[in-house]
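User: We ran a pulldown and think these components assemble together. Before we commit to crystallization trials, I'd like a predicted model of the whole complex to look at. Sequences follow.
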Amino acid sequence: MSDTEQARRLRFEIFRYNPEDENSEPHTDVFELDETPFMTLYIALNQIREKQDPGLQFDFACRSAICGSCAMMVNGRPALACRTLTSDLPEKIQLYPLPTFKLIGDLSVDTGTWFREMAEKTEAWIHERLPFDPDALEQRMSDDVAAAIYEGDRCIECGCCVASCGLANVDDTFLAGAGLNRVARFMMDPRDSRSDSEWFDVVAGDQGVFACIGMMACEDVCPKELPLLEVYAYLRRKTLGARFLAKGDKA
Ligand code: SF4
Ligand code: FES
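Assistant: Here's a predicted model for the assembly, 251 residues in total across the polymer chains.
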């Protein structure tokens, strides 16, 4: 925006509801403010809270797309508030909390419980192959494998992929993009002792990759641009391979 251009007047329609208050009813409140250069939704929400409504609830911590806590529905699409510029949006902006997660209040949701349950279901930690030996040398790992593991670890657990998933919206046990990405990360880790056959029930069960209905919104909305479709293809290949091997088929 140049100095001569008039600042836009932004109109925010924001979901309000406090599930802890029996007198609270779900509704939307409208707030207006003048857009400033390089304004993000995070900045706008803080201005609204500071100057118009101190009770407005939303989450944030890092302001730099790292902590994953500021995800919300922005004009119907999951996005991080701290990385969304208002200049990329129309003047009318609708903000709703992410679906599928438990609502804490207004735009604030509890993603932590979902991610913890997912981590427990998939046992998302290294299952050690060797007994602990403090004197052992470090195990070597190829650069390609290390890079692939690092790629999976870039997930910030924001929940955007889960919120955008048609299946996760009706079945909160589905692992969705974030959960399947986590499974793939451990499947490809040579330090983890679980075989592809041992992963079979997790990956091929009702909550796994074959339950995906193929809408593919997860990859479109991931703010870290994780290649989730490649992850699903990897899991399908590994799972089918494990089944053929289990039957003694060398295909
Ligand atoms: Fe967020 Fe992407 Fe991780 Fe899903 S996979 S939780 S969209 S960072
Ligand atoms: Fe941390 Fe937005 S505030 S990701």
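The longest strand covers residues 9-16. That may be worth checking against your pulldown data before setting up trials.

User: Thanks, that helps.
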